[in-house]
């Protein structure tokens, strides 16, 4: 009930939610509703710790709204709010991360609108699972990169820069121009 | 069986050498020891440490002061205080000393005075031409460096002024008695060159005052050391052979002005500007055609 009241008074988070919850199996945890939350908690904790993580795509999609809401609680309510501190305690079992959240991550978004996180899709990876009777079993994974905005790492997507004078562009445009001239000459010669 | 390029070319050279009585003009032997000697002459004793504050200007963040050693530390060392990637991506540096006007220098050139430095990378917009010139100059120097290691004979090098619009860079090799390289030899040289480039050798650079260059007979205002090979040049160079991406030496021909001089042409693009094999084949073909047409 309390969570409903708090959530209702908060603005909507700026990321997509609402698809069917997934099982999110992990070794060492029995699959159940509770296990799913445990897996998500691990991901949220790791993301707050490292600020950029590479995950399976479905896990990244699933964990993002929870992380977004946690940061939003910090931004909107502050560390003294009872519900916020309860949520922080549960989602961040490593206590130094609660300090990091309130002192490093939340101040970053004080004057900013949601979303506070970004999600990128990487090309799928094919990884070897195991070898059984000399038979290699491979599996294809969709990979996502989940990050907290404003992190110190270089951007995942490079900015599109105007580079028409760069060495590659200068050489390539000259090569293409001459290539077309040569083709034209060949066509004219063959026409004659 | 792989034949080392050195023995391959040395064998051919002994079999085709003709005796020529040419008087050589006295010029210093540009060796690694000579480089150290000039560095000592220009920058003083490296064992005497004197500290200076250099301010690294960063476009995205605030400027950061760093404490470094005068005449020993380079802009590369200063950039490393910010981040390794920031330092690795630097191509040139703009130095604004506390006394005197601003100038552009190589990243591996020692800093002589308290100054503000600004990193210039391949992604620059303001100094594109400067970076392109430095890259082309560096490619010529690298070609000369691995040719000298490969030929291991009495060869000297000249550096004709080429620009990016020419589509190729060239190196004049003196001492081959007008023997151009065969396609097989060029293949072997290319393989050797690529190995040389992959070794990620830094371009150690010294700025030579006019008095020292006149006294020592150095033809140029910069002395560059790549591995153990030293060359005099006019202008800054890139940081390391690591920044060189695709690279090819495609042809050699007799020089137009001097019959004993062999011009070696090549083309290259930076490592951070990747392209497809098809585009690269167009660039290499175009460069080859333009080099063949040039007198």
Task: Give a description of the structure.
The complex is a heterodimer of chains A (192) and B (295). With 192 residues, chain A is of the alpha+beta class. Chain A has helices at residues 2-9, 33-50, 57-77, 82-91, 96-108, 167-191, and strands at 52-56, 117-132, 135-148. Chain A has a three-stranded antiparallel sheet with strand order 1-3-2. By secondary structure, chain B is α+β, with helices and mostly antiparallel strands. Chain B has two domains: 5-30 and 128-202 and 239-293, Threonyl-trna Synthetase, Chain A, domain 2 (Threonyl-tRNA Synthetase, Chain A, domain 2); 45-121, Roll (Ubiquitin-like (UB roll)). Chain B has helices at 5-16, 32-43, 75-80, 84-88, 128-151, 183-198, 210-216, 277-293, and strands at residues 51-57, 64-69, 90-97, 103-106, 115-121, 156-158, 169-174, 203-207, 222-226, 229-233, 244-254, 261-270. In chain B, the strands form three sheets. A five-stranded mixed sheet of chain B has the order 2-1-5-3-4. Chain B has a four-stranded antiparallel sheet with strand order 6-7-12-11. In chain B, β9 (222-226) and β10 form a beta hairpin. In chain B, α5 packs across α6 (183-198). The radius of gyration of chain B is 20 Å and the shape is globular. The chains are: A alpha+beta (192), B alpha+beta (295). The A-B interface holds A 154, 161-163, 165-168, 170-172, 174-176, 178-179 and B 85, 122-123, 125, 128-129, 132, 135-136, 164-165, 167, 267, 269-270, 273, 275, 279, 282-283, 285-287, 289-290. Chain B: One of its GO terms (molecular function) is nucleotide binding. Chain B: InterPro entries: Thr/Ala-tRNA-synth_IIc_edit. Chain A: Pfam families: Ribosomal_L17. Chain A: Belongs to the bacterial ribosomal protein bL17 family.
Major sheet of chain A, described briefly?
A: 3 strands, antiparallel
Fraction of helical residues of chain B: 25-40%
Order of helices and strands of chain A: HHEHHHEEH
Query: How far apart lie the N and C ends of chain B?
Result: 38 Å
**CATH topology name of the largest domain in chain A:** 50s Ribosomal Protein L17, Chain: A
Note the overall shape of chain A.
extended
**Mean of residue pLDDT of chain A?**
87
- How far the N terminus sits from the C terminus of chain A, by CA atoms, comes to 87 Å
What is the gyration radius of chain B calculated from CA atoms? 20 Å
Sequence of secondary-structure elements of chain B: HHEEHHEEEHEEHEHEEEEH
Please state roughly what percent of the residues of chain A sit in beta strands, choosing from under 5%, 5-15%, 15-25%, 25-35%, 35-45% or over 45%. 15-25%
Strand order of the largest sheet of chain B: 2-1-5-3-4
Domain unit count of chain B:
2
Keywords (chain A): Ribonucleoprotein, Ribosomal protein
Organism (chain A): Caenorhabditis nigoni
GO cellular component, one term (chain A): mitochondrial large ribosomal subunit
Family (chain A): Belongs to the bacterial ribosomal protein bL17 family.
């Amino acid at each position: 009930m309390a969570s409903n009241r708090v959530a209702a008074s908060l603005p909507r988070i700026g990321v997509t939610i609402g698809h069917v919850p997934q099982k999110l199996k992990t070794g060492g945890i029995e699959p159940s509703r509770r296990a799913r939350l445990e897996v998500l908690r691990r991901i949220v904790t790791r993301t707050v710790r490292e600020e950029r993580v590479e995950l399976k795509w479905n896990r990244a999609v699933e964990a993002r709204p929870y992380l977004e809401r946690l940061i939003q609680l910090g931004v909107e309510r502050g560390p003294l709010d009872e519900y916020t501190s309860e949520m922080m305690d549960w989602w961040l079992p490593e206590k130094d991360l609660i300090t990091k959240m309130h002192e490093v991550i939340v101040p970053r978004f004080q004057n900013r609108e949601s979303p506070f996180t970004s999600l990128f899709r990487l090309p799928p990876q094919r990884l070897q699972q195991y070898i059984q009777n000399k038979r290699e079993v491979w599996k294809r994974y969709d990979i996502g990169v989940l990050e907290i905005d404003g992190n110190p790492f270089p951007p995942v997507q490079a900015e599109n820069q105007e580079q028409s004078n760069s060495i590659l562009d200068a050489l390539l445009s000259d090569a293409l121009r001459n290539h077309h001239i040569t083709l034209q000459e060949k066509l004219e010669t063959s026409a004659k | 069986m792989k034949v080392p390029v050195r023995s391959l070319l040395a064998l051919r050279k002994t079999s085709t050498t003709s005796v020529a009585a040419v008087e050589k003009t006295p010029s210093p032997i540009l060796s690694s020891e000579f480089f150290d000697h000039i560095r000592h002459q220009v920058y003083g004793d490296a064992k005497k440490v004197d500290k200076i504050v250099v301010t690294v200007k960063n476009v995205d963040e605030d400027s950061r002061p760093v404490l470094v050693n005068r005449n020993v530390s380079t802009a590369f060392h200063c950039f490393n205080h910010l981040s390794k990637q920031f330092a690795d991506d630097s191509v040139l540096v703009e130095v604004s000393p506390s006394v005197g006007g601003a100038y552009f220098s190589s990243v591996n050139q020692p800093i002589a005075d308290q100054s503000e430095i600004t990193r210039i990378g391949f992604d620059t917009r303001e100094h594109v031409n400067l970076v392109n010139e430095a890259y082309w100059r560096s490619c010529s120097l690298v070609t000369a460096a691995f040719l000298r290691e490969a030929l291991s004979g009495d060869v000297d090098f000249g550096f004709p002024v080429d620009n990016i619009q020419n589509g190729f860079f060239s190196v004049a090799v003196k001492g081959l008695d007008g023997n151009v390289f065969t396609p097989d030899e060029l293949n072997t040289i290319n393989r050797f060159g690529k190995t040389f480039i992959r070794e990620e050798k830094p371009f150690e650079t010294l700025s030579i005052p006019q008095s020292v260059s006149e006294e020592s007979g150095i033809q140029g205002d910069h002395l560059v050391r790549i591995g153990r090979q030293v060359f005099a040049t006019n202008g800054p160079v890139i940081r390391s052979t690591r920044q060189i991406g695709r690279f090819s030496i495609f042809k050699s021909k007799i020089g137009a002005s001097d019959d004993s001089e062999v011009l070696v042409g090549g083309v290259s693009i930076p490592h951070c500007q990747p392209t497809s094999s098809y585009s690269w084949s167009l660039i290499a073909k175009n460069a080859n055609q333009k080099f063949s047409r040039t007198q």
